[in-house]
Amino acid sequence: MLNKEDLKQIQAKGISVAVVEKQLEQFKNGFPFVDITAPAVIDHGIVKVDEEMVEKYQKLHRKMLSSKRVVKFVPASGAATRMFQNVYELIKEYDKSYEKYLSTLVDRSFNSIFYVCEHMRYFAFYGDLAKAAVENEMDLNCILDKKNFAQALSLLISENGLNYGQKPKGLLKFHSYQEETRTAAEEHLVEGAQYAASKGNVDIHFTVSPEHVEPFKQLLNLVKGKYEERFGVAFNISYSIQDSATDTIAVDADNNPFRNPDNSILFRPAGHGALLKNLGELNYDIVFIKNIDNVVTDRLKPDTVKYKQIIGGVLAEILDTIVAYMTRLEEPDLIVDGSLTKMVNFAEQRLNNPFPYALNEVTREQKIEWLLSVLNRPTRVCGMVKNEGEPGGGPFWVKDSNGIESLQIVEASQLDPENKTHAKIVKETTHFNPVDLVCCITDYKGNAFDLTKYRDDNTGFISAKSKDGKELKALELPGLWNGAMARWNTVFVEVPISTFNPVKIINDLLRVEHLHENDLMVGK
Description:
11-stranded mixed sheet, 20 strands
């Protein structure tokens, strides 16, 4: 199946032949569905922090910032093309038929393209769009007044305008303020200054596509000075790209390697799970993880900052206990049995790792061996939002092939659609995953974990794609906060919906969470 030229290509990408052969087997055999046993809910998998505990956790969070190496990690790869899908569709209809174009504008609901066009003046990028119109010898106000919407939208996404369809989300202007506009990337700087500042420094790491590294650097080098002066901090901004060695092979309908016109094998980026390598190469103890498009204006940031401090404080409390227990386990002969039982209870009740035996049926040595394996793992605290119909994976109790349960974030694609029991469990879910994590990726002595050892390789998935009009199958690695962290210590904490405000389509920028305070009557 693989010829000599294939082997050369694989070697040049830095991928082992064994890995590619394993991927080909995964296409043939598929991935097992995740076996969920119950939804994670309040008091059974999700912690609800009482208001009187907030100050305690904020104090622990501040202590952690002063004693650990802290970074804010922002996945920001890829262009914003999908954000403008409805824009592309309208322009396509305009090019095909003016009648079809008009029929597209009949829908005037919030999620319609008509709503975008009618409220174009409220977008933070409106001023830039007006300048682009002038450069093209047009008047944007005149275009909108005459309802030449296709023309205005073409300026927004095309190269002779703002080219927003090809730029990354991080470089799009999201928010307007009295004296400035901010891109999504800038909002992450402002956020980071308020909950990730360690000893006066705010370290932020963006994962970006190779072609976007320089544009990110140019923008953030230009603006970071004003935010440093405003917040009294120094920003250390770093970047990495998704390693091409994490790309996965694509196959045709018969599970043979998909060939490019030159007969080379097609390899594709393997999804956000590939960023586990980027995460593992960070020289930090504590990592805050949040998607590039989940930001809000300043008037709504207090909730975001407060709950970042809370989940940071919860992690700090857990880490303090892990360090204390692991240090004591270095001299097991000095530990009384009652202390071992206390450690087991901590692992079960705080780290959500059920002890797999009856306590009175195992030896002291077995308890110690189990505790060493459970306590000395990467640890994550994940915010969970009440489910109000938003998309996103959910928190579940999951049983592995050995019958051991653990807390996991599970996507719909990982579940068997024919399993009625699982369908019932899904209906009972109360929360979903907003991608709001704080993680510890070093052990109790400060040494970096090999994060690949804690990934469940059976949680990848296969999707249908196409290239040059030909159907293909693509393989994605276990998701970064899904199977890639399957064997981490996991704690879920309830956070409010106000901390989750992603921008998935252009219309989302017209929600109240993203509007200037003078324009709130416009937003949904």
